[in-house]
Amino acid sequence: MLRALLSECCKVLRQYLRKQARHLENEIDAKLVAFSKLGINAGARHVNADEVPLMDEEHVFENMASEIETLLAKLFSINERMSELQPNGAAMLHTMQRHKEILKDYKLEFNKIRNNFTARKDREDLLGSVRKEIDNYKSASGLNRREMYLKENQHIHNSDRLINDQISIAMETRDHLMTQRQAFKRIRTRFNDISNRFPAVNSLLQRINLRKRRDSVILGLVIGVCTFLMLLYAFH
Q1: CB within 8 Å of 225: residues ≥ 6 apart
Q2: pLDDT tens-digit readout, 116-140
């Protein structure tokens, strides 16, 4: 009599647990569908930075994730309680195994949705940060480009003025050399006249002419090198 009563109680408890398990499975299934849609919509809105949702969908997503985790924990507890009861035949054993497989599938689906949402959120946060840095760089580049153009214009103006100064110096030097040339030409003419009159002085004049040519060549080389160095400094 007592054994029959215990068997009947186990049967009633088993049916109650199965009913609770099916109820939780239906509730978890519905929430997983809504959870998946919320994760997709939240990710899509996160892409568009100009659209501001009325609610913080990430917060709603986390709340729903917490609710589903609670339901999964309850379903696991019920499955464990059913496992503690002695299965009544192969059909009951198959039913208990089926509830465990459903719980496992729900956990896999839940983790997949949450991981996809986290990966999408991290990717969009990274893209948003890069986009913001690019915009800041473009703004700063615009200001730096204008400053660079102003400095380059000032540098060109200074270089042009320096070149004009160097050209003026070179022209003055040329005029001065031409004046010296005329003076040397007159002196040479006088020395030629004297050498024609005094043959003994001719050899001395030739040596003077040779030294003068050498000095002229050296002076010309020095002036050329100085002019080249000034032009090189001006252009650099």
Answers
A1: none
A2: 888 888 887 788 777 777 777 666 6
